Structures are given as C-alpha cells and as structure tokens.
Amino acid sequence: MELLCSCAEIIASFVESVLILSTIIAASSPKYPIKKSVLLTVLCATLSTLYLMFMNALSAFSFLTPIGTMLFSIFIVGKLISDGNILLRSTSCVLALFVIQSIDYILIIGLTLLHGSPRELFYGYLEPGLMRIIYLTVDKSSDIILYCWLRKYITKLSELRRGSIAKLLICTTLSYIVMQYLFAMVLHGDFIQLQGAAMVSLFILLCFLLILAFSMITVTVSEKEKATNQMLANLNQNMEINYYILNESITSNAKAMHDFHHHLSVIDALAKKEDSGPVTEYIHSVLSASLIPEPLCQSGNNIIDAVINAKLSEAKQKKIDVSYIVCVEDLSSFEQADICAILSNQLENAFEASEKIENGREVQIDIRQQEGFVLFNVTNRVAADPFMNNKNLASTKPDSTVVHGFGLKNIQDIAEKYNGSLKNEYAEGFFISTVLICSPTI
C-alpha cells in the first residue's frame, strides 16, 4: 500500500506539472513543432516532479514548494518551450497553479463535509492511504477535464493587452494568497462550519477569477473582431476604387486601340492610293497581329464590369480560360464595395487554385439576379479536393507581409450582412463557390 501511495503522489505531481507547463505553452504558443514540444514538456514535467518530491521531503520548507515551482516554470521551462514574454508566462503559470490548488482544496473540503465527519476524516484525505489515492484520482481527473474544456480560452490570453495581462496577474496572485490563507484557517479551525465557509469562499474566488479572465478575453476578442471588420471594410472600399480606376484604364486602352485601328485603316487607304506597296504590307501585318480587339464585359453594373475586365486581363497572362454570364438589373440596394469584395475574393481564390494546375486552367463566372436576390457562382478546375487536407480552406499564400487569409471571412461576413449564405463545395474536379445575398429592401 505504501508503494502504491507513493506512486499515486508521484503521478499526481507529474500531472500537475504537465498541466501547468501545457497552460504556459497554450497561452504563449509553443516554440517548437508539436512532437518536440510534447517531448520537452514531458522532460521538464519530470524534472519539476523530482523537485516537488525533494521539497515535500523537507517538510520544514514546504512553504517554498509552490514558489520554486512557479519560478522554475516561468523563468526556465517557460522560456525554453514557449515564445511568450515573461508577463504572459507568469500570468498563465500563476493562473494554472491557482485553479489546480483551488480544485484540490474544494474537493478535499467538500468530500469531508459530504461524509459529515469531523477533522479526523479531513486529515484522512491528506495522509497516505486508500482514501488519499481515491481523492487524487478524482482530483487530477477533474484538473485534466477542466484544462481540456478551458484550453480554447487559454490560447486567447496572448490577445489581451499588456495592461490587462498585468491586472489579471495581480488579481490571480492576490487570489492565490487569499486561497492559501483560507485553507490555513481550515487546517487550524475548530468547527465544520468554518470548513464549509472556506469551501464556499474558495468556490466564489475561483468563479470570480475565471469570470474576470473570460471577460477580459471576450472584450479583447470583440475589439479585435471589430478592428478586423473595419480593416476589411476599408480594404473593400479601396478595392472598389482600384477596380474602377483599372477598368477606366482598360476601357480607355480599348477605345484607343479602336481609334488607332481606324487611323491605320485611313493610312492604308492613302498608301494604296499612292501605290506604296511596302507601307500597305506593314499596315496589314500590324492590323492582323496586334490590333485584335479584346472583348470586355458590359453587364450594366460598373463594379462587376470592372472586376471581370481586370481579371480577364490577368487571366490572359496566367493562361486561364475565363467564361462569364452576367444577368443583373439593379444592384443599387447593395453597397458596391460589398459586390466588389464578394466577386473579387471569389475570383482571387479561383485564380490562386488555377495557378497550381499545369494544363486545363478554367474559371466560370455566373452572376444572376432574380427580384431581390443575387447569386454569385464561380467555378474553377482544381488538381485535387481542397477539403482533403485543408478543411477550413486557409490561405496557402507564402507571403506573410501581405494581408492574407481574410478572403473567405470577408465573403462570409458580407453574405451574413445581407441575410445570405456562402457555400463552398467540390465536385468532379471542380471547386464551386456560391454566394447568395438578399436585398435589404425585401
């Protein structure tokens, strides 16, 4: 039994160390790939467990155990396995230690009160034995379950401002000190009521701290979402202006080509009149080789024409076969920047996928309006199912200096703005992006 109890204590200490280090890594992002990160975490947790065993053996210095654990995790291990700054590592470490020990104390006090037993049973959970093993099993299982549930929130700690992280660290440290004081009262108190009051206080303290952390994270995420949406709105407006300017340039060049064609025809007629054979031959060669007019989209909507005409020019350079059908009447109830963002992002994604194909590059555009509904359908040939290794269709562009990865979010947000939908699917070698938007006046 004594060996079993010792093993249980070692495993419990190891689990605590892993959870603390995992919290630091989750909050501040790992420094190495997942396999190496896991290996280093296990190794460091083992060292931390050995330290705990040594300090627990020195009962006179047990009050230094949590301090040493925090310093070791923050300054040595945290720096070794995570990329977070010291403030973020400190906050996540103290928060993890506080939550773990709060659960320890709440469970041990709660189990004692459930049995309705006095101090003897309370100390029974602290002394080696079967009761202690059962308690540790329930306790550490609770810690693991809570970590798995809270991990998605822990990863957002890095999004907090430094001031908010500092405030959270101060609140967590003060809460940790109060928690230790409350538990000391339980150990030295004379009444069961005191234990109950301490457990309730610990529970309220834990809830307060978690609510504080969640509130900070929620506010930060909301502010970040707002900033991202504002950035996308500005980007859409700038995109609309750029496409208008580009379309004017394309149209102007087309007109100039058309006029130049007429000028050459006149010169050709004059050359024939003067019987200048070489000049006539040269003019004919120029007319047949370079002055074939390019077809331009003329749907009646300026921004759709601008986007498609610009992409037609780009498609010619990238050897992408583009076909389009545009049947729209009046899109005045929609913001033109939103129309531009939907179509340009769809085509940008289609062209990005097409460039990965050596032959058979093909993009089909189908835009139709029926009453207050507008459907944007862009289909492009792909080499393989894009959902196979990229379920969220994250951007694969390597240039990190340019804003990437917001295309689908941009389309999704605009579709939701107009009570519509975005649907992406793969079928028979083609990727199909379909966006439906509804007029706000309906």
Biggest pleated sheet: 5 strands, mixed
Provide the succession of SSEs: HHHHHHHHHHEHEEHEE
Number of domains: 2
Average pLDDT taken over every residue: 76
- In terms of DSSP E residues, the strand content is 5-15%
- Fraction of helical residues: 55-70%
Description:
The chain is α+β, with helices and mostly antiparallel strands and 442 residues long. It has 2 domains: 230 residues, no CATH class; 147 residues, Heat Shock Protein 90, CATH 3.30.565.10. The protein is built from 12 helices and 5 strands. The protein has a 5-stranded mixed β-sheet with strand order 1-2-3-5-4, with helices on one face. The longest helix has 82 residues. About 2% of the residues have low confidence.
Layout of SSEs?
Blueprint: H1 2-28, H2 34-57, H3 65-81, H4 86-115, H5 119-124, H6 130-154, H7 162-188, H8 192-273, H9 277-289, H10 302-318, E1 321-327, H11 336-354, E2 362-370, E3 373-381, H12 407-417, E4 421-427, E5 430-438
Parallel strand pairs: 1-2
Antiparallel strand pairs: 2-3, 3-5, 4-5
Helix pairs in contact: 1-2, 1-3, 1-4, 1-6, 2-3, 3-4, 4-6, 4-7, 4-8, 7-8, 8-9, 8-10, 8-11, 10-11, 11-12
Domain Sensor histidine kinase NatK-like C-terminal: 336-437
Protein name: ATP-binding protein
Transmembrane segments: 6-26, 38-54, 60-81, 93-113, 133-154, 166-187, 199-221
